[in-house]
Amino acid sequence: MIVQLTPTQLAKLRLVPGILSVIPDQIRQLHTTHTPTFLGLSEGSRLWKNSGYGDGVIIGVLDTGIWPEHKSLSDSGLGVSLYSGDPLVDYKLPLVYAGDVGSRYCYMGSISPSKVQGKIVVCDRGGNARVEKGAAVKLAGGLGMILANTADSGEELIADSHLLPATEVGEIAANKIRQYIKSDQSPTATILFRGTIIGTSPAAPKVAAFSSRGPNYLTPEILKPDVMAPGVNILAGWTGFVGPTDLELDPRRVEFNIISGTSMSCPHVSGIAALIRKAYPDWSPAAIKSALVTTAYNLDNSGKNIKDLASGEESTPFIHGAGHVDPNRALDPGLVYDMDTSDYISFLCAIGYDSNRIAVFVREPPSSDICSGKAGSPGNLNYPSFSVVFQSTSDVVTYKRVVKNVGSSLDAVYEVKVNSPANVDIKVSPSKLVFSAENKTLSYEITFSSVSLDWPTIIPSTFGSIEWSDGIHGVRGPIAVKWRQGSSRDSI
Fold first, then answer.
1. In whole numbers, what is the pLDDT of the chain averaged over residues?
2. Is the pLDDT of residue 209 over 70?
3. What is the DSSP string of 272-335?
4. pTM of the model
5. Alpha-carbon span 299 to 172, nearest angstrom
6. Which domain holds residue 487?
């Protein structure tokens, strides 16, 4: 029975004999990924408007798992979908630690069925896939799993579509559970869903423990990673040919899944790049990347440096790159570090490619001397960040950069501010860039000088930044410095 009542009528109705319950009707919102809002890309944001909402922009994807007719790419609405997983019984079950019954990481076939039958198993995170641990517990006869973080993953929690009732706990709670099992002769537990509780002001963003990180050992003069972007617990389309765990023994088939990984960060950045491309059709890929890098932020919502969930400590440019992408700021970067084909050819020459190998890319005759006059440091690639490798404690390294004024003011004047890494002196020449209608592109040199120290006192790496500002724009480039303590590239 559905009726419309005032609060007074509702109170009276509850008192009528025979009325078992009165349930107010509620407006339900569609549950979806919140990353667009987190990125500032809610409807009406500057980037959405200025890019025409990305109309006409096509993102090319080299992948074998993208099906263009998937519902996630459809413009039609989606109906209500109700699903409730099989809950554990509401009484407590015996609790065991996998390290006491076979393998702490719950490898397939490593758990003794006789010791986990009908029990909840605590599995340590690491060593193998998280969902594989749940499958191993289920195959051994376990009824549930607690995925316990170790120091390597800290307090990072990732949602997975396990094959049995499961929950994941951070390192602090995990240590308490392990201690409880060790101290109690008959430990028990259950897994119940009590709803979602979000802290009043959780620190965000944070770098996932699994996130790709530097330094770049192949070309250490190029800082990696470039930026960070949302990639944890992302609601995404899923193939119908495998189960949500991607395990062969998973019989379930779903159209959507909660996925985590750099493979989820990539489409976020690709989408932002597509919107910027729509707003500025003449911009090169390098200019778009520059805008994303120089406008990224490295402070969380509490004003502190972004933390690394793997260590619980503050992250560095080797972990977060320039920082977290900021789509709306990237729309107006002020200056960009642009590149064309010749820049990339010079870079290939600098890292040891000869003319014959490069000819494959540039379609030049193998006999032509493509690298003639192009020898130099890989660090001179016109990148928006800086990675320096000192060969000695008194080494000096100089890089050249070229910036293009893309701001609204043709007569902009930018002054430099340097945050020097520890044990490094930095000089920028010139320290002021004066642009005009005739001079939209200017260059500068940045010289890094190592402070003379004894090798035993050398710290592995230090970090800083350089920022050009005209009072409106802040064009920041991260700096990473390492000392080579040997003659081989592997010692970096």
1. 87
2. yes
3. HHHHHHHH-TT--HHHHHHHHHHT-B-B-TTSSBPEETTTSSBP-HHHHTT-B--HHHHT--SE
4. 0.81
5. 25
6. 335-491
